[in-house]
Amino acid sequence: MLTDIAIDYEKITAKNLPKECMISSGHRACQGCGEILAMGMVTKAAGRDIVVANATGCMEIVTSPYPQTAWKLPWMHVAFENTAAVGSGIEAGLKVLHRQGKIKKKPHVICFAGDGATADIGLQALSGALERGHDMLYVCLDNEAYMNTGIQRSSSTPWGATTTTSPAGRQSKGQHTQKKNLPLIAAAHGIPYVATASPAFHLDLMNKVRKALAVDGPAYLHVYAPCPTGWGLAGAKSVEIARLAVNTKVFPLYEVIGGRFVISRKPAKPQPVLDYLKPQRRFRHLGENDVAAIQHSVDAAWDYLERLAKATGKDEE
């Protein structure tokens, strides 16, 4: 059901960019890690008034090596599969404390989880939290595999990518299934706000965080998070590959506001998908026909997104 939602939020610009990062330096993320970069942007935009539930995974490991922590916020490490369930409990508990007058203001709740903890073993908990309408933001940091445990494929791994459990060889092209579309699954729950974002476009990402926190009810943010280690990519190329993912339409940036699809960025001159695939070792085994097939799939997905935007736009009512 389409509903008009006017989101009242303080827009972030280059002039008022938040300076304080809620994740301290000295963490143990790999060089060029897109996840830690994106997570820093999310917490900068959100500010101090938040409570974090963080799934087991790369970000939990690199920020909390006992007895140290890189977090400047109330933070809870939870299991792979139950981030959304724990976030739901935190939100419900804060609501009770606020109603009883024990806290003056109810902090925002943000859940951080990777693609494996979201698309695979955490999907049931996420779906339940969205269906129940908990007022929280769920952020999926998508590096397209289980990187922390050895670069195993997930249902978010794109077709053709080689991983330790979908290796390329004489009898295999690597990952043989298509990437699961988590933002569309989240949007199908009819929640107020869903968006995709990339650390290569920091203002877009941070303003989407502000919007997500401003709505009443659950919000879902799917963030593209390059993994130089797992993708076979130079660490210094992390932001460049993130930008290429958007400019080749491999990872479209869009919002779903009250059921209405809005494309955030339309590349004026889209680059060929080969420009995105070539720098990454995980795709180097692919031939011309494979690249052509991926290009066709990317073009079809973009066409579908444009049709969704047109069908749900206000001018189409």
- Structural class by SSE content: alpha/beta
What's the overall average pLDDT, rounded? 96
Report the biggest beta sheet as strand number plus sense, adding barrel if it closes.
8 strands, mixed
Shape: globular
Number of strands: 10
Strand content is 5-15%
Q: In which order are the strands of the major sheet placed?
A: 2-1-3-4-8-7-9-10
Order of helices and strands: HEHEHEHHEEEHEHEHHEEHH
Helix content: 25-40%
Give the terminus-to-terminus CA distance. Answer: 13 Å
As a whole number of angstroms, the C-alpha radius of gyration is: 19 Å
> Which spans have pLDDT < 50 for at least 5 consecutive residues?
none
Number of continuous helical runs:
11
Produce a short descriptive summary.
With 317 residues, the chain is α/β, with parallel strands linked by helices. The protein has helices at residues 34-46, 58-63, 83-99, 115-120, 123-132, 182-187, 202-214, 228-231, 238-247, 273-277, 288-312, and strands at residues 50-55, 75-78, 108-114, 137-142, 168-169, 172-173, 193-197, 219-224, 254-257, 260-263. The longest helix has 25 residues, at 288-312.
Please name the defining characteristics of this protein:
alpha/beta; globular; about 325 residues; two-stranded antiparallel sheet; 8-stranded mixed beta sheet
Question: Mind explaining what this structure looks like?
Answer:
This protein is α/β, with parallel strands linked by helices and 317 residues long. It has 11 helices and 10 strands. The protein has helices at residues 34-46, 58-63, 83-99, 115-120, 123-132, 182-187, 202-214, 228-231, 238-247, 273-277, 288-312, and strands spanning 50-55, 75-78, 108-114, 137-142, 168-169, 172-173, 193-197, 219-224, 254-257, 260-263. The protein is globular, with a radius of gyration of 19 Å.
